[in-house]
Amino acid sequence: SQKIEQNSEALNIQEGKTATLTCNYTNYSPAYLQWYRQDPGRGPVFLLLIRENEKEKRKERLKVTFDTTLKQSLFHITASQPADSATYLCALYFGNEKLTFGTGTRLTIIP
Amino acid sequence: DGGITQSPKYLFRKEGQNVTLSCEQNLNHDAMYWYRQDPGQGLRLIYYSQIVNDFQKGDIAEGYSVSREKKESFPLTVTSAQKNPTAFYLCASSGKGGISYEQYFGPGTRLTVT
How do residues A49-101 score in pLDDT, each as one tens digit? Predict the structure, then answer.
């Protein structure tokens, strides 16, 4: 069965630095990969989607890469701010009508 | 003001009672989903529906039931057969079935069963 791993459970980054979060998967490559942000006690909010034939996607200070050889996606937040502190979830679509979510990485930006 | 709503935000029930969680969307989305989130675990899919009057079991459907009589509504019933019902429940919708469409999530319902 498919397994998704998001690097560390928690990540602390100094304000202004780039935060890099990792999403690794096993077995089959997904057709699409999405990243969501979740604040405590709230529902996730969609951030970015990247397709298997795309290497990189950007949106403002966010950048996502997708390496099907390494079976990995990297999620970058540049010029990080305390307001970026949240849990970030990766979600993969394997062609079975549903998304499979990772457990998330809790990111804290330290002022 | 478009969106997806869940009610109530907090719900308390005694063991052995069935409870129904509400989920409504006015985004005109075809697909709707129910997830369960436990501490330290990812979102796990309970049920999903691609179209009115049709729904499929997700990965952890045992002890749950749903209905999809209207496009806007996808209520979830947590039955007394669900062994560990205390959790954070999230409803989501998308334009089409999860393929390349982002999912929009509601604010969640935290259910506590004692």
Answer: 998 889 899 999 999 999 989 999 999 999 999 999 999 999 998 777 788 89
Q: Which of A74, A78, A63 is nearest to A25 (CA)?
A: A74
Backbone φ, ψ for residue B72 (5° rounding): -80, -15
| Shortest Cα distance, chain A CAs vs residue B80, angstroms | 25
Interface of B with A in 18-47 (CB under 8 A): 33, 35, 40-45
Asked if residues A74 and A68 have their Cβ atoms less than 8 Å apart, the reply is no
Candidate from A43, A91, A103 with C-beta closest to B108: A43
Phi-psi region of B16 (alpha: psi -120 to 50; beta: other; left: phi over 0): left
The pairing of strands B109-113 and B10-13 is parallel
Name the pLDDT band for A42 (thresholds 50, 70, 90).
Answer: very high
CA distance A56 to A71: 14
**Does A26 contact B at CB distance below 8 Å?**
no
Residue in chain A lying closest to B102 (CA): A46
Asked whether the beta carbons of residue A89 and residue B42 sit closer than 8 angstroms, the reply is yes
Tens digits of residue pLDDT in B28-61: 999 999 999 998 788 999 999 999 999 999 999 9
Q: Give the minimum alpha-carbon distance from B81 to chain A in angstroms, rounded to a whole number.
A: 25
pLDDT of residue B97: 54
Q: Residue B24 is encoded by which pair of tokens?
A: 């409504």
The pLDDT, as a whole number, for residue A31 is: 80
